[in-house]
Design goal:
Two copies of one chain form a homodimer. The first copy, chain A, is an alpha+beta fold. Among the domains of chain A are: 37-172, Nucleic acid-binding proteins (OB fold (Dihydrolipoamide Acetyltransferase, E2P), Beta Barrel), CATH 2.40.50.140; 363-493, Gyrase A, domain 2. Helix content of chain A is 27%, strand content 23%. In chain A, strand 22 and strand 23 (504-505) form a beta hairpin. Chains A and B meet through helix 1, helix 2, strand 1, helix 8 and helix 9 of A and helix 1, helix 2, strand 1, helix 8 and helix 9 of B. Chains A, B: It comes from Candida tenuis (strain ATCC 10573 / BCRC 21748 / CBS 615 / JCM 9827 / NBRC 10315 / NRRL Y-1498 / VKM Y-70) (Yeast). Chains A, B: Keywords: Aminoacyl-tRNA synthetase, ATP-binding, Ligase, Nucleotide-binding, Protein biosynthesis.
């Protein structure tokens, strides 16, 4: 939600704290009289634009010869009236602006009066001649000498009052003025880029990979399990549809329907608490392929799609990590084998403390279990450290940044963060913690080995924390610390780029490049968390009640098959996440296409005993010779936001809901009369 | 809904009259035991297809040289076991089939046992050599000599029992076996063609016309008016979203948001009684353009899109009606001016009795008002006739087809239908009706003029009926008769095609060609129907209470502007329907972009006094300099169904709902526990 504090930047009179600002505004200023015909005709009869500003700029010599042109668009700023001239600015549909000059003697006098009364953002059609402008910069610039100026629709006082903000900081425009915000070049670019990305994705799937786009139903079945779905009452008593969280089940039905390569850019719905990057409705690039025997066969298609988005639209180079641990640009992209770096889940968790590591950073975690045992919780016996080398100048006063040390930055316990200010700090940092019985040296503890492992010097920051052997905490406290450190020091500890001549460089901007990876070999199941509060220092687990790490249709890795019966927590799934610059952009898996195995997982591993009510349709479809299949889904909103460089998916959605689930433009959700509800056999209840 | 009568075609044992046939089936046949590893490995580890059947057929000589190939697919039929061989049939993912031969001595013996137990529709991976087949036709045909046969997933008894029906009449497969139906070539083609059409439409908009695809919200605002929308409860008391019937309001907001050329292939929702061609969720090709001054500027874009669909995908020629009233193929398609025939609404109603005339037929209605006045209802003073020339052989016994004469074919009164069997019938047909006081001759009645007007001969069928002066009945009784006659006699009264050399021919099949037209100049408003029943012979109207013929945002034709204040029923709107082969494929209009005019229409014409609650957001967006705009929506499901030659949109939707709104696969809608409902602050009610 936009921060209301920003309201102070524009006059108090347009702060709308009331529940219904739009209507308040409304009743004030418009009439319901019958508009005179000449007024209406003027708004509906006008010459079309003959050219765009950009076209004229690119062919200026031709247009300087004096042929009249017509431009249509919006008045970008309040006009300036001078003695001999009036100046105004037009913004055309590409977002390009141009000065319009009204000159006494040339421009008909009546237009001076029109321009004098005009308000920014009115829509206009102007005709005239292109001429060179007096330019301070010395560059050739042009302006339009106005011969005809027609207002196609007036604007209102809100547009006038918000005009300064519109130019200085459109992101701070109040959300009910979304249409004004969307007119500004930044947001226009976002919306247009999103369309380009969707089109590129579709053409890549269809034209390069012979996929079929299939629309699956949005009126789906309610699964009595969760409260996370939106319900849709019908006009039959106690009969509800539900809006789907993903097309997962329908796409598996499609695999049993002879569609061998399916994709869809699909709307999905999620009724849960909204965060900055969550929306109750969102868009997913969904795909599934049958007769595949390995997830890489899906991976190469997804890589081709994602690679094209970054190369063709964002114009960003795409990197992987080479055998030396350096970044290497994907120069020759293969559509036959996996190009992106593969990172096993355990490696991601132990090296980076998270299953979606930002690999642009070279920071990695150091296992100190050979030196110390943490004493606080025996279920968390692994001690690990992260060193931020040369984080500060030890000759100056230094305090660890609040973001790294504040417990609000961490969901549970925070790591211990120590600035190494002196040489004694570097060698004796641990003694204090041993004394306090937070850690204890192991039997094999060796001081000089510890020193060479950590290699601390004044100016470094050391952080350490404990974690469980098989980390279900994700990120671990130290994984979170690493993320915070990367944000806090964006230009430090960058992974080296290895150039084609072998040279190494870290002279690059992490914002304008992409490191793409697959995180693989996830545990298929996790224990449910038992009791406790989400802010407890340590989570506790109910090891006898398992849940799927992703969804219950994910196939076990065949190497781990026997463990499914004996020790399911040790089983790795054929799940794979696509992680780009530390963001989980997508996830997929091979699915269980064998009905017997799927039933076993439902009943004996997950304890879902009424699986037939929930998933009978799927089991039946599998049992009719459904071929082996695998697939994936990409978060389309997130991908678009990353391409346009925005942290928030709301910036790439035309009409997003705010964090209360409210559409500030149309003011939904809204109340419904009891009479209407009765037609759906429901009534409200408090 | 599929006709259950067809169930007799397959064994009685699989008639499932119970509410939950799938689960019944289910519990019977599958185990929840842990499947042995070797069984699972066999299903998940297999060679990928090296080629498709089609590729081998097209390059047969190369493959006859003996290199082994692998094909994956489904077992298309039950195998036949002979003394020396076994024969089976594989259907690959293109729907192409090929014979597999297992030969003792070549094919490992174990596979004979596998094939013997196999059930149609299991998914398989087979390898072997390509060889020529003994062919009766003399054509070179090939078969696969099997060296490896691997079952990737078993099929079930339903697939076996339904196999004959699958081959003979897949449309009659029970709807809960939709995935089996979708595997058959006809349905595969439907689904794949739909994807191609969507892709062609998108690329035409984006690449040829510089449009931007924008997703608009599906969680929209409930408008307290209608009961036609689906509601979505939220987890706030008495706060509901509604699923949109179309993106109309959001796309107008986009016009005020600087998007000058918008389109979207959008999901829409409609909670009303379902007919054969209606679904509760459907898909619309939606577009809108700003800074347009005439609807033809939208029309040319839509024509380009639609023309490409027919030419490139259906491979059908597209015709318009030329100045001689003949069909003429659009050979040179213009993207600068309208190519399709324009038919004013009044012309459509008077000549064809409907606003979506099938122009492939030359049948048109004849005004008899100069000869007779109908006497039954003074509000319906126009008498008109339709003559089906040479409909039957007068020398043989003839009865008017029931479809034309049955009152069930007509929603209100039916026309009087007279077979002209003799010469006296031709000249004296009316006398009986005059005697019965159904019609009366006018003062200017002239018998010989009537005869030359109708020019009846034995073998003709004459129909006549009355209608109102400005026909709000649509179709009129006689318009309906014309439609029925076209269906009943598909090869008669075809409009002539005028060839480029001027020759005329009606030697064409109406199914394989397209006549495209724009119906224009619709009345902007219609009186509401008052009282009475929809099956009354004559409708009655409440002339003081008007409703929009399309929607309240449609602009009045400027020529009729003054009538908006004085006589709104006479006002024509800037609405235009796209009609192809008698089907309304789309509709659009210029919109009112002036807030004052829109308010006037809401309040003073339509009597919507709480317009601010309903449309305040739109009025406010218009008032912020929203530019002039116009747009259109195409019924995408209908368009796809027409392209694949299907009468039913369910044939081009992967998982349609049946006529009770039920998804027969997943069995939605379904009940939801009260506990879940309370989270949404609702409860069920009877």
């Amino acid at each position: 939600m936009r921060n209301w504090a920003t309201a102070k930047r524009f006059p108090r009179t347009i702060r709308y704290p009331s529940p219904n600002p739009v209507s308040l505004q409304w009743t004030r200023s418009y009439s319901t009289e019958f508009p005179p015909k000449e007024v209406t005709v003027q708004k509906f009869t006008f010459p079309l634009a003959s050219h765009s500003v950009k076209h004229i700029s690119n062919n200026l010599d031709k247009f300087l010869q004096g042929n009249p042109v017509t431009l249509n668009g919006h008045l970008n700023r309040r006009p300036r009236l001078m003695a001999k001239h009036a100046f105004a600015e037009l913004r055309d549909s590409n977002g390009d602006t141009i000065q319009m000059m009204l000159a006494h003697g040339v421009t008909p006098e009546k237009y001076f009066g029109v321009v004098e009364k005009s308000i920014p953002e009115e829509s206009i059609s102007v005709s005239g001649k292109v001429q060179l402008k007096q330019s301070r910069s010395g560059e050739r610039e042009w302006e339009l000498l106005v011969e005809n100026y027609q207002v196609l629709n007036q604007s209102n006082l809100d547009a006038a009052r918000l005009d300064k903000l519109k130019h200085s900081s459109p992101k701070d425009l109040p959300p009910q003025f979304r249409y004004l915000q969307l007119r500004t070049p930044h947001y226009q670019n976002n919306i247009r880029t999103r369309s380009k990305i969707a089109n590129l994705i579709r053409n890549t799937f269809i034209q390069n990979h012979d996929f079929v786009e299939v629309e699956t139903p949005l009126l789906f079945k309610s699964t009595p399990e969760g409260a996370r779905e939106f319900l849709v009452p019908t006009r039959k008593p106690n009969a509800f549809y539900a809006l789907p969280q993903s097309p997962q089940q329908y796409k598996q039905l499609l695999m049993s329907s002879g569609i061998t390569k399916y994709f869809q850019i699909a709307k999905c719905f999620r009724d849960e608490d909204l965060r900055a990057d969550r929306q109750p409705e969102f868009t997913q690039v969904d795909l599934e392929m049958s007769f595949v025997s390995h997830s890489d066969q899906v991976g190469v298609v997804v890589e081709d799609v994602v690679h094209r988005v970054w190369k063709d639209i964002a114009k960003f180079p795409v990197y992987t990590i080479n055998k030396n641990g350096n970044l290497e640009e994907i120069s020759e992209f293969s559509t036959h084998k996996i190009n992106f770096t593969k990172v096993p889940y355990i490696e991601a968790l132990t090296k980076y403390g998270i299953d979606k590591p930002d690999l642009r950073s070279s920071l990695s975690l150091i296992d100190l279990s050979g030196f110390f045992t943490p004493l606080k919780n025996t279920n968390f016996p692994v001690l690990e450290a992260c060193v931020l080398r040369d984080a500060f100048d030890p000759s100056k006063k230094f305090k660890v940044p609040k973001a790294l040390s504040d417990s609000n930055s961490y969901s549970r316990r925070k790591p211990i963060v120590i600035p190494i200010k002196t040489q004694p700090d570097a060698s004796e940092w641990y003694k204090n913690f041993v004394e306090k019985h937070l850690i204890t040296p192991t039997s094999s503890f060796n001081e000089s080995q510890l020193e060479s492992t950590l290699n601390l010097h004044p100016g470094d920051i050391l952080a350490f924390a404990d974690r469980a052997e098989l980390p279900y905490e994700n990120p671990t406290p130290l994984g979170k610390f690493r993320q915070l450190a990367i944000n806090e020091f964006p230009n430090k500890w960058k992974r080296m780029i290895e150039l084609s001549n072998g040279d190494l460089t870290d002279n690059y901007c992490t914002k304008d490049m992409v490191v793409a990876s697959w995180v693989v070999d996830f545990p298929l199941f996790a224990p449910t968390e038992s009791g406790g509060s989400p802010s407890d220092e340590y989570p506790t687990y109910e090891l006898s009640q398992l849940e799927s790490n992703h969804h219950p249709f994910t196939m076990v890795k065949l190497e781990d098959y026997d463990l499914l019966e004996t020790d399911p927590l040790k089983v790795r799934g054929e799940h794979y996440d696509l992680v780009i610059n530390g963001v989980e952009v997508g996830g997929g898996s091979r699915r269980i296409h064998d009905a017997d195995l799927q039933k076993y997982v439902f009943k004996h591993v997950l304890g879902i005993h009424h699986y037939n009510d929930l998933f009978g349709h799927l089991l039946h479809a599998l049992s009719m010779g459904c071929p082996p299949h695998a697939g994936l889904a990409l978060g389309f909103d997130r991908l678009c936001a990353m391409v346009v460089g925005s942290p928030n998916i709301r910036d790439v959605i035309a009409f997003p809901k705010n964090q209360s689930g409210v559409d500030p433009i149309v003011e939904s959700p809204s109340s419904v009369p009891e009479k209407t509800l009765s037609e759906y056999f429901i009534t409200t209840k408090n």
